[in-house]
Amino acid sequence: MSLEESLRSLSLDYLNLLINGQAFSDVTFQVEGRLVHAHRCILAARSLFFRKFFCGPDLPAGLDSVGGSRTGSVGSVSRASSGVIPVNSVGYEVFLLLLQFLYSGQVSIVPQKHEARPNCGERGCWHTHCTSAVDLALDTLAAARYFGVEQLALLTQKQLAIMVEKASIDDVMKVLIASRKQEMQELWSTCSHLVAKSGLPPEVLAKHLPIDVVAKIEELRLKSTLARRSLLTQHHPHAPPPDAEDHKMRRMRRALDSSDVELVKLMVMGEGLNLDEALALHYAVENCSREVVKALLELGAADVNFPAGPAGKTPLHVAAEMVSPEMVAVLLDHHADPNVRTVDGVTPLDVLRTLTSDFLCKGAVPGLTHVEPNKLRLCLELVQSAALVLSREQENNDDNNNNNNPYQSISEDRLDSRLVYLNLGGGAPSQMSDDDSGQREAMNRHGSQGGGCDPSMYHHHSHDF
What are the BTB domain coordinates in residue numbering (predicted)? Predict the structure, then answer.
């Protein structure tokens, strides 16, 4: 038996003591009207709080002695056989989680999948990042700190850091306040950056957060804006000074967050706001809805292929990295170029091929906690189809130039079919021509060569997500 197996067996043996209830139990707690049987020696060995309670001269707050009295010079506790210890500081569920960790050294803080929870109205919820899961983790964190179980506190902190990445902004703010009270700097940093990124105006934040916390959030936003502006200035030396545009950019982003595209239009016309230099389209793709991005594009004041920062990513690069078919579709509908390259020579199509290769070969995508296979496939097909259309258009243009007829336009039926295909409401074509299938298969083979995955496997699985 290996050391790991030995430790796992020991953990299960101790956990069975807790599960079996009264077997060898010498102490009983009452939590929310329910009895919990435990063992003093294990609790005292694993928690300074319980050690002081059972052996110390003073009774800690939160546990009350009932049915017995402290006797002896060493402060030992003696109780009648019927005596119980009421626990008033935590709930029954959290107290059981605390004991499970004390007995076994491991515990799952996430609620049971599809379990009905009082503060989660979503039917069939997996409780990975809902309000119920966040509340349970916060209560467990508070209990761990209260009972002096620092290892459980660190484990819960890591769990919360994962939850807040997908949690609602209201839950993120709850965790932000808790991490501040518990002085957990890493969790505080994660939550504060998420709140700053949310784009909620200070007056809204002030309703949920203390004034000094709101000031910290605004400071983070300012630093982020200046850093982004600095990167943009490095790539575009003639960009305006950051101080002159900072306030304008904040107003623009607040307008986008509230879907007020008309205000953005007024800023463009009346205040001379440059949407490209303000990275308005990049911001909208990353933070706003499809309707906002579409309305912003229809203003005609933003370059859909504008390269941002030293890397030179376009909005389509951002949408591809997000695996968002809605954003990919609306950008392609407004003539985003699927073949435009970053400074490192990467196209949006390359991005999606790499993500697909990672997903097929590794079962996960680095940097993305969850990827929906159907969305990834749809993004790849949308961008790949647009690339094929552009390739054919270029071939036609070359043929026209060779025939001394440079004014021949693209046929309307081909253009219309492309727009119908990019419309998510209409769905993708059910069949492709032999020529299209051949080119698509060739492009799939080409894209999978850089991912370390067998090309035949890639072609087979691309239809079976």
Answer: 25-111
Nearest C-alpha neighbor of 389 from the set 314, 332, 351, 319? 332
Torsion of CA 411, 414, 416, 422, to 10 degrees: -150
Q: Tell me the per-residue pLDDT of 309-353, one tens digit each, with 9 for 90 and over.
A: 777 889 999 998 888 899 999 999 999 999 899 887 889 988 888
Q: Which two tokens stand for residue 180?
A: 């501040």
Domain 1-107 -> CATH class: alpha beta
The closest alpha carbon to 87, from 136, 119, 55, 49, belongs to 49
| Contact predicate 194/173, CB 8 Å | no
- Please check whether the domain covering 308-402+410-465 is classified as CATH 1.25.40.20: yes
- Residues 448 and 455: beta-carbon distance below 8 Å: yes
Position of tokens 């069949």?
431
CB 50 within 8 A of CB 147: yes
The span from the CA of 197 to the CA of 177, in Å, is 17
The upper half-sphere exposure of residue 130, i.e. CA atoms within 13 Å in the direction of its Cβ, equals: 19
Distance CA 383, CA 389 (A): 10
Strand partners, 77: 70
N- to C-terminal Cα separation, the chain:
40
Whole-angstrom Cα distance, residue 403 to residue 213? 68
Q: What separation in angstroms does the CA of 196 have from each of 193, 245, 388? A: 5, 19, 40
Residue range(s) occupied by CATH 3.30.710.10 in the chain? 1-107
Stated as kind and residue range, the H or E segment containing 170 is: helix 169-181
Chain-centre distance for alpha carbon 240: 33
Residues 111-166: tens digit of each pLDDT: 877 778 877 877 778 888 889 999 999 999 999 999 989 999 999 999 999 999 88
**443-451 LR contacts (CB < 8 Å, sep 24+):** 443/349, 443/384, 443/387, 443/388, 447/349, 447/350, 447/353, 447/354, 447/356, 447/357, 448/353, 448/356, 448/357, 450/353, 450/354, 450/357, 451/353, 451/354, 451/356, 451/357, 451/358, 451/360, 451/361
Domain with CATH 1.25.40.20 in the chain: 308-402+410-465
pTM to 2 decimal places: 0.48
Q: Which alpha helices (H) appear in 289-372, and where do they start and end?
A: 290-298, 315-322, 325-333, 348-362
